[in-house]
Amino acid sequence: MLTQERHREILRILSEKQAVTVSKLSELLNTSESTIRRDLNKLDSQGKLTKVFGGATASTQILEAKDDTVDTRSQLNIDEKRMIGQYAATLINNYDLVYIDAGTTTRVFIEFITNKNATYVTNALDHGRYLMEKGFNVYIVGGKLKASTECVVGAEGIKFLEKFNFTKSFLGTNGVDINAGYTTPDIEEGHIKKEVVQRSYHSFILADSSKFRKVYPVTFGKLKECCIITGKLTDKSFGKETVVKEVSQ
Predict the structure, then answer these.
(1) Domains of the chain
(2) Which of 5, 34, 77, 203 has the most CB within a 10 Å radius?
(3) 31-70 per-position pLDDT tens digit
């Protein structure tokens, strides 16, 4: 089989399986493992796949430039979001200073929070109202209001955050990718998230399985900067770049 034919076949297999080992490709293509490794190195350098230890994964699947409305996103992956939120709530200790990001997963997370000895800060109006109704001590970030996600963004929001050093932050994300990190469509929202990560002793990304291998225009953090809490991680290569907690039952 010619090199170009092998490359096409490798990419076809990855499009179906999303991940494959060198030994499996060697078996399927009747080619030596050393040749397969050279093929993977070449395709990785071209950005057509991601080479990992012992094999390869499909290249990033989706490049997005838009942000769906809160109503649209709130209907997706409800069961997984509840498992994520329930686990994340157990991480809050007495006297923690906790930042809670805007987003539908973080909104579900608030349902499970019971610790009234912690202090909460959020840039989401709905989140702040819900925390207040539950009797928690809560601060709202001030600044420009973004309609699609119902959260505060902009320079005034960043200035407000400069006074805080969070013990824990819980953030949503639109995309999680090994190379691009944690991404979002909006540059102002990305700046808020980045500021929070830099001001947090521990940062947790609450991400259901649909967020992986997606990239949006603005990166607000590298994988190693945060711990990911998700349902079931289908691509184990992410676990080599950061701490991942799977909470599926």
Answers:
(1) 3-59 (1.10.10.10), 70-246 (3.40.50.1360)
(2) 203
(3) 999 999 999 998 888 777 878 778 887 766 555 555 555 5
